[in-house]
Amino acid sequence: MPHFDDILRPEALNSRLTASNKKQLFQRVSEIAASAYGLDEHVVFERLMERERLGSTGFGAGVAIPHAKLDDLSTMSAVVVLLEEPVAFDAVDGLPVDLVFALLSPVDSGADHLKTLARVSRYLRNERHMARLRGAGSDEALFALLAGDEARDAA
C-alpha cells in the first residue's frame, strides 16, 4: 500500500472543504499550504494557476492533481482536500472534481517531481483507494489512509 507520509503533514489536509469554483479551490489549497509548510500563500496560488492555464490537472473520476514548483520549498510537499460539493474543473472526462491532491515541489526537483506525480497518479487511479479516501469522515482518518497508518488505527 503506497503511503505519502514523506510529503504530507496532518495539518495539510481538509476532509470537508467548500469552494464554489476552481479559483476559490486553489485559494483554499494555497491557504492550507501556507499554514502547513510556511509558504507564501500568494506565490502558491499564482504557481498553481499558472500551471492550470497550461491545461487542466483534472485527470478524471472526480480527481485533480494540481502541481507547482516553488522557489522557497526545500522538499516535496502535498495538500489533500475532499470537497463537500464537486467543482467544475475542465477534467479530461468532463466530470467535476471532489478530491484534490496538490503537489508542491522545489524548483530543481526535476525527476523527483515526475516520480512523485506518477506515484500519486497511480494511487488515485485505484478505485478502492478512492472509495476509502472519499469515505474518510475526518481529517485524521484521511491522514491515516494517506500516511499508511490505517492498519494501526483500525485496530
Tell me briefly what this model is:
The protein is an alpha/beta fold and 155 residues long. The chain has helices at 22-37, 41-54, 110-125, 127-134, 139-147, 150-154, and strands at residues 13-17, 58-60, 63-64, 67-70, 77-87, 97-106.
Could you list some keywords that capture this structure?
6-stranded mixed beta sheet, single chain, alpha/beta, 6 strands, 155 residues, globular
Structure description:
- This protein is of the alpha/beta class.
- It has six helices and six strands.
- It has helices at residues 22-37, 41-54, 110-125, 127-134, 139-147, 150-154, and strands at 13-17, 58-60, 63-64, 67-70, 77-87, 97-106.
- Strands 1, 2, 3, 4, 5 and 6 form a six-stranded mixed sheet that branches.
- Strand 2 (58-60) and strand 3 form a beta hairpin.
- Helix 1 (22-37) packs across helix 2 (41-54).
Low-confidence stretches: 150-155
Strand content: 15-25%
Helical/strand content category: alpha/beta
Number of strands: 6
The helical percent reads 40-55%
N-to-C SSE series? EHHEEEEEHHHH
Question: What layout of secondary structure does this protein have?
Answer:
Blueprint: E1 13-17, H1 22-37, H2 41-54, E2 58-60, E3 63-64, E4 67-70, E5 77-87, E6 97-106, H3 110-125, H4 127-134, H5 139-147, H6 150-154
Parallel strand pairs: 1-5, 3-6, 4-6
Antiparallel strand pairs: 2-3, 5-6
